[in-house]
Amino acid sequence: MKHPLCGYILLGIIVCLFAGCSRFNCTRLEDALGTETDLITFSYKIADQLTEKAYPPLVPLNPDMPLLVTTFVDNNNLRQTSQFGRTMQEHITSRLVQLGYAVKEIKLSSSLLIEEQSGETILSRDLKKLSQSQKAQAILVGTVSVANRTMYISSRLIDPVTANVISSDDYRLCMDDQILAMFGLQRAEDDGMIEEPKQPFEIPFQN
After folding, report:
1. What pLDDT score does 199 carry?
2. Model confidence over 71-102: pLDDT tens digits?
3. 140: which strand partners?
4. CB under 8 Å to 65, separation ≥6 — which residues?
5. Residue 167 above 80 pLDDT?
6. 123 Cβ contact partners less than 8 Å away, ≥ 6 residues apart
7. Whole-angstrom Cα distance, residue 69 to residue 97?
8. Domain topology for 36-195
9. Domain ranges, ordered by start, for the chain
10. Residue 142: how many CB atoms within 10 A of its CB?
11. Averaged over 104-114, what is the pLDDT?
C-alpha cells in the first residue's frame, strides 16, 4: 500500500506541470516545470509581513500619518536602483493602500541621498530633517544583492524620528528570465553564470 504522502507529492508535481512553479527555478527542472515569479504577489507578501510585524504597531486610516515607500536599491551601491527596484516600490505601495494606509512614494534623487556609512537603506543624511519635511509614521526601505542567479532582498520599516528598525524581513529569490531582463541580463548557455545579452536592454538607472 502506497503511503498517502506519495499521493500529495504526485499531485503537487501534476499541478506544477500544468501551471508551472517558481520553486523549480534555478534547478535542473526549471525549463520543464519552472515559471516566472509573480512579482505582484511577492511584493504584496512583503507589505503584509512588514505591517503585521511592526512594533510599535502602525496606524491605518489616518491621512496625517502616512508611510513613505522608497525605491529598492542595490546593496553594493545604495545610490543606484533598477527597473526591478522601482517595480517593487510600485506594487508595495499599491498593497499598503489596499490595507488602508496613506502612502507617499519617495523617488531616489540627488536631493534625497542614501546614508552609505550606516549599512542600512536610510533616506537622507539627516533623518530628523526628513521627518520634519515629510511627516510620516514609518519609512519602508529595501536593498537587493545578487549572487549569480540568486537575489537576496532585505526590507525594513524605519521610524523616521529615532531611526529604529520597527519591522524587518529577508527573502531569497531565483532570478528568472523576467527578473534578469529588468537588470539587462540573461541566462548563459550553460545556465551556470549570468552574462550580458548580445543586444543589451536599455534600462536607465536613476541617480
Report:
1. 43
2. 898 888 777 788 999 999 999 999 999 999 99
3. 69, 157
4. 59, 102, 135, 136, 137
5. yes
6. 68, 70, 106, 112, 113, 114, 115, 130, 139, 141
7. 11
8. Rossmann fold (3.40.50)
9. 1-35, 36-195
10. 24
11. 57
**3-class secondary structure per residue, the chain:** CCCHHHHHHHHHHHHHHHHCCHHHCCCCCHHHHCCCCCHHHHHHHHHHHHHHHCCCCCCCCCCCCCEEEECCEECCEEEEECHHHHHHHHHHHHHHHHCCCCEEEECCECCECECHHHCCCCECCCHHHHHHHCCCCEEEEEEEEEECCEEEEEEEEECCCCCCEEEEEEEEEECCHHHHHHCCCEECCCCCCEECCCCCCCCCCCC
What is the C-alpha to C-alpha distance for residues 57 and 49, in angstroms, rounded to an integer?
Answer: 12
Phi, psi (rounded to 5 degrees) for 173: -135, 135
Asked if residue 13 lies in contact with residue 6, where contact means CB atoms within 8 angstroms, the answer is: no
Q: Which residue has the cell 543624511?
A: 125
From residue 159, how far is each of 79, 82, 98, 165, 202 by CA, in Å? 21, 25, 22, 6, 36
Contact 70, 141 (CB under 8 A): yes
Residue that the C-alpha cell 551601491 belongs to: 77
For residue range 26-55, list pLDDT tens digits in order. 656 555 555 788 999 999 999 999 999 999
